[in-house]
Amino acid sequence: MEQRAIKIFDTTLRDGEQTPGVCLDIAEKLEIAQALAKMNVDIIEAGFPIASPGDFAAVSEIAAKIRGPVIAGLARANIADIDAAYNALKGAEAARIHTFIATSDLHLEYKLKMTRNQVLDAAEAAVRYAKKYVADVEFSAEDASRSDWTFLCQIIERTIAAGAVTINIPDTVGYTTPAEFGKLISYVQKNVSNISQAIISVHCHNDLGMAVANSLAAVQNGANQVECTINGLGERAGNAAMEELVMALNTRPDYYKAMAAIDCKHIYKTSRLVSVLTGVNVQPNKAIVGENAFAHESGIHQHGMLNNPLTYEIMRPEDIGLSHNSLVLGKHSGRHAFEDRLKDMGYELGNDKISELFVKFKELADRKKVVFDRDIEALITEKAADQAEWYRLVYHQVMSGTHNQATASVEIETSQGVLKQAACGDGPVDAMFKAIEAAAGMGTMLKDYQIKAVTAGEDALGEATVWLEKAGQIVSGRGLSTDIIEASAKAYVNAINKIVNTGARGEEDMMAEEK
Fold first, then answer.
1. I need a surface site. Which of 44, 233, 333, 492 has the fewest CB within 10 A?
2. Is the pTM of this model over 0.70?
């Protein structure tokens, strides 16, 4: 059976980073882009270059270093945005300029304050201008699902004539339904005379929980590109989740008659990486990558699974790179065993990184009886997130009791020397955070804090995440330790380092319209 090829356009680094509280630095974005390239993603939307100097630099870095996928930069339908996108993409092996403008009457009247004819002219001019720079130009009709269908077809026809080779039809506010969206894609194919000269793409938001369903309905009706994010990240309720889209297509080729060329064995690792670097945990019952996705508690289910896994599993954990190998490591395990385990888990790391990880593994093994795969994954992603350290926690102590106020003291190393501070708080973690804040003097506000165990057991590795706000910017920090107080302190210091590394973001100074 011949299968249509569906292109996967990943926008984790652009739309995904617009998730409230998410702020990735250049090194973290590059780490994610490398993971996406390993997955064989067709297009990576690396960012919105004109949004800020940081976005521009990140897109430039990814364009220069990532090979394989097309690297795209987002641009509004104006010269300045398109110039910025082109300049950021100059180093790309294959570059795409993705320009957009709103097409719904609601957006025209209240946001753009433009007539339909003005929008038609602006869209055509933007595509023609972008075409001077690159052959690969994508045009998006923002809020397409709430646009007049006749006008939508007019602007699509004009932009294809101007040189657009991909036409994106977004459900910008997650408003549509699968049947309705499928009809819209079909209508566009029948009523745009030159539609055969372009690929139809869709970009669905999840406000009503139907982003994946809407995207799949579009595929059934002729869309050949789907825009999505890892773990469904994005503004408000997020975007269509790439892992769900890909596994739906690959699990049901008989129904969709379409496939994505994604290396699915990298899905789990990439999901975990994105979760760690963004500070956004994956819900346990999340399809495909949630902790419970392949768990079976019901006795009836377990009996069926023992006889034949297909009774209750429509795909194997191994399909997404989730190992069921029961081998565990301990403090007597050598480097060779550790390297073999990394390879079995699908990680290809250089000798220097393996050496650094092995040191951390041995330190963990001294505090923990057995080390599981999830522990090793946590160490790997901690290394990925561990960037320039302006502040480093070198010592901490806490005292707390039922009838005593909690106190904490810390020593933090900086380039100017060691800072020492002590503070009292409402419990040991609060006291620790106040002591670190007093030492760093950053003037931050704690927005949220989470702690969870990576694996089961009283000696489980604790994973702490904190969200700090400074000058309207929210960043997340992460820390790992078998001591949850230490993990929490590391997370707080990690967040402070991110604030120093990233500085004030430019998005607050401009209205970066969502697509």
1. 333
2. yes
